[in-house]
Amino acid sequence: MSNEIRALEPKPLWNKFADLNAVPRPSKKEERVIKFMKNFGNNLGLETLVDSVGNVIIRKPATAGMENRKKVVLQSHLDMVHQKNNDSGFDFENEGIQMYIDGDWVRAKGTTLGADNGLGVATIMAILESDEIQHPTIEALFTIDEETGMTGAMGLEPGMLEGEILLNLDTEEDDEIGIGCAGGVDITATRSYKEETVPEASTAYKVVVKGLQGGHSGMDIIKGFGNANKLMNRILFNGFENFGLRISEINGGGLRNAIPRESVAMVTVDTAQKEDFQAEINKLADSIKEEYKSLEPNLKIKISEVNAPEKVLEVGAQELLVKAVYAAHNGVYRMSPEIEGLVETSNNVARVEVKNGQIEILCLTRSSVESSKNDLANSLRAGFELAGFEVTLSGEYPGWAPNRDSAILKVLDEIYQEMNNEKAEIAACHAGLECGILGKNYPEMDMISFGPTIRGAHSPDERASISSAKKYWKFVLEILKNIPEKN
Hints:
Elements: H1 2-6, H2 11-21, H3 31-43, E1 47-50, E2 56-60, E3 72-77, E4 99-102, E5 105-108, H4 115-129, E6 138-143, H5 151-155, E7 165-168, E8 176-181, E9 183-192, E10 195-197, E11 202-210, H6 228-243, E12 246-253, E13 263-270, H7 274-291, E14 300-306, E15 311-313, H8 315-327, E16 331-335, E17 343-355, E18 358-367, H9 370-386, E19 390-397, H10 407-420, E20 425-429, H11 435-441, E21 446-449, E22 454-455, E23 463-465, H12 466-481
Parallel strand pairs: 3-6, 3-7, 7-21, 8-20
Antiparallel strand pairs: 1-2, 2-6, 4-5, 5-23, 9-18, 9-19, 10-15, 11-13, 11-14, 12-13, 12-17, 16-17, 17-18, 22-23
Helix pairs in contact: 2-4, 6-7, 6-8
Enzyme class: hydrolase
Catalytic activity: Hydrolysis of dipeptides, preferentially hydrophobic dipeptides including prolyl amino acids
GO molecular function, one term: metal ion binding
C-alpha cells in the first residue's frame, strides 16, 4: 500500500511520510524514530544532534541568496498517538502503519494514521533533503513525547536554538493560522477497594459501549461526541440504583488526549431480576442512542450473559465510584468570552479502569486561561477526594498567549491571501501545542502554527486530505521564500 501513497503529489512530502510511518514511534518509546532521524540528518551531511531528553536538531545552511534572512526553526513532534479498533491485532511497537487511499483521504487500516504530527515531520525532512527549495538557514527541531506529556519541549534547554522565527507544523485545518493554544494538566484519581465474593443466585453480564467517534480531546471536544466512560457509567449507575448491580471490572478508554470510544464492564445482578434488568438496560440504551443519533450513528450498547466472575467491588466503594464518575465534568466547561467559537476550558474523562482491588481514573483538563484551568482541576479533585480517591495533578504545561502583532503572522496572512484569494482564519486552538512551552525558554522567538487538513486525530478514523497536502506544501515553500531579512 505504501507504493500507492508514494505516488501521491507532492511526492517529496508523501515519500517522507511513508518512510516515517514504517518506523514504530509510540510516545515515550521513541528510541527507534530518534535513531531514524539522527541517521537521516547524518546521511545528508548536515549537523545533527540529539539533546539530553531525546529531541533531534538538524541544521541546514541557507540556500544561495537567502543568507541574509532570519534563521527559521521548523518544528514538529516525532511521536504519535496509538489507538486501534478492538478487533485489530495491529502491533504498534513492531509494525509500520498500514496506509491506504480513500477518495481524497489517506487513512490507516484500523489504527491511527500518524498524520498528527507525521506530516509535519515529513515536510521538514523533504525540505532538508531537497537541493531545489529556496530557504533561509534552518534549524529543524523534532521533539519527543508531545502526545503524553510534552516532555521533549519541556526538556529543551535555553541556548540550543538560534532561530528568530519558529514555524510549528501541527495545526489541522489548512485555512487556519494558529497564534495561541490551551495549556493542560493531568488529573489522576486512584483508590483501592475490598473485593467480595459474587452474591449467590447471580447472573453475570458483559456490558459493551462501542462505535463512538472518539477523536482529539482538544480539537474535537466542542463537537459533543459521546464519551464511552460517561455513557457506561450511566448504565452502571442505573443498574446499581434499580437492581443492585455489582461491578467486577471496568476497562474504558485509553489515552488522556483521546475522547474514549469504547468501554467494557463485567457486572452481576440478582438472577430473580435478570429479565427486568435486561429490559431496563435495553430501554436506557435506546434512549442514549436516540440522544446521540446525529452525532454517533454507529454507537452500540450491548449486554450479554457471561460466566460469573470470582469477585466484585464491595458496595460502599462501588457507590462512591459511580457517583464520582457521574459528578466528574466532561466536555466543554467554558467558552472563551474573548474569541468567538473558541473553547476556553474543558475536561476529558479519558480512562476508567477497575480491576484487582484498584480503581484508576485519568482526566486531561485544558484551558487557555490558567485560573480557569485551575478552577476546573480543583473542582474535579474535590469530587474525587470526597469519594475517597487520592488525587494527583501532574504533567502541567502552559498555554500559548496569542500575539496579533506578530511579524511572521503578517507574512503568512499576506501569502495565504495572495495564493488563495481569501483570508485565512487567524485563530487560537483548544489543543496543546508546544509553542507555549518553547516560548518560556525562547521568549523573543516569533512563533506561528499551521498545517494540512487532518480529521479524526487520536482515533482510528484519523485521515489526511490529499488535496489539502498539495495546498499546504505550496504554502510552506512560499513562506520559506519570504522570510524577512535580518534586522
